[in-house]
């Protein structure tokens, strides 16, 4: 005997298929949860890849030997350990002449390969808190004296439109020839050569080449030829 499925008061059948549909809801929920987990994992993977890329970009200029040299030199107080600082930079690949004293570790700016862009000659003296921008090469000759907080700046910008005045990057190498004396807080700008035996007074900003044996001061330049010896 065939029995019909019961019908509710509104005329709708309470069929077995309906019960089966109700029972399938947990399976649909599980499927959606799995899809959500997959989306979450994909998002986490994208975020991790983005963080790794950014970290790689930021650390690309890092030079482990330079980091080690700076870390070992950091505990040294100013004016002490001058020869040790020079030795540490030599071990990091920099060309530092014998007898050169570093009263403080200079700040060395620029991208990867900084050691190839700096040469300091023999019997030089660099005082504390000097900054050397190595976006382009910096060459310092023999027996050069550099006062406190002197800056060697090799990079600058073209003047851009009003919306962004710091335009395209430009710059040039700096050369300081033998026997030069640079006073405290002077700034040597991109592309400048300071001639042998010259003196740059404290606080001067040098944007043009300085002839040999010249004193550069706020009131102008004076020949030092009579003091050549």
Q: Which structural category do the helix and sheet elements fall into?
A: alpha/beta
H/E order of the elements?
HHHHEEEEEEEEEEEEEEEEEEE
CATH architecture of the largest domain: 3 Solenoid
CATH uppermost class of the largest domain: Mainly Beta
Specify the biggest β-sheet.
Answer: 7 strands, mixed
Beta-strand portion reads: 15-25%
Percent of residues in helices comes to 25-40%
How many domains in all? 2
Principal-axis shape: elongated
Strand segment count: 19
CATH topology of the largest domain: UDP N-Acetylglucosamine Acyltransferase, domain 1
How does this structure look, described?
This protein is of the alpha/beta class and 229 residues long. It folds into two domains: 40 residues; 157 residues, Hexapeptide repeat proteins (UDP N-Acetylglucosamine Acyltransferase, domain 1). The chain is 28% helix and 24% strand. It contains four helices and 19 strands. Helix 3 runs antiparallel to helix 4. It is elongated, with a radius of gyration of 34 Å. The termini are far apart.
List the helices and strands and how they pair.
Blueprint: H1 16-23, H2 25-59, H3 64-73, H4 82-91, E1 95-96, E2 101-102, E3 107-109, E4 118-120, E5 125-126, E6 131-133, E7 138-140, E8 145-146, E9 151-152, E10 155-159, E11 166-171, E12 174-176, E13 181-182, E14 187-188, E15 193-194, E16 199-200, E17 205-206, E18 214-217, E19 220-223
Parallel strand pairs: 1-4, 2-5, 3-6, 4-7, 5-8, 6-9, 7-12, 8-13, 9-14, 12-15, 13-16, 14-17, 16-18
Antiparallel strand pairs: 10-11, 18-19
């Amino acid at each position: 005997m065939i029995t019909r499925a019961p019908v509710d008061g509104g005329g709708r059948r309470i069929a077995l298929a309906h019960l089966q549909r109700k029972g399938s809801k947990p399976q649909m929920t599980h499927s959606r949860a799995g899809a959500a987990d997959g989306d979450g994992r994909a998002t986490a993977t994208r975020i991790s890849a983005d963080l790794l890329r950014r970290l790689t970009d930021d650390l690309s200029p890092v030079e482990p030997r330079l980091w080690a040299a700076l870390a070992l030199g950091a505990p040294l107080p100013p004016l002490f350990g001058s020869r040790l600082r020079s030795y540490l930079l030599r071990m990091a690949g920099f060309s530092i002449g014998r007898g050169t004293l570093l009263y403080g570790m200079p700040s060395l700016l620029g991208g990867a390969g900084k050691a190839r862009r700096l040469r300091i000659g023999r019997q030089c003296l660099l005082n504390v808190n000097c900054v050397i921008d190595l976006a382009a090469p910096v060459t310092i000759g023999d027996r050069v004296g550099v006062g406190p907080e002197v800056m060697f700046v090799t990079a600058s910008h073209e003047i851009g439109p009003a919306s962004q005045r710091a335009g395209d990057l430009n710059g040039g190498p700096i050369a300081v020839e033998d026997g030069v004396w640079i006073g405290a807080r002077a700034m040597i700008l991109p592309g400048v050569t300071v001639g042998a035996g010259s003196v740059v007074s404290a606080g001067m900003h040098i944007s043009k080449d300085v002839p040999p044996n010249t004193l550069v001061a706020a009131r102008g330049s004076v020949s030092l030829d009579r003091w050549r010896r």
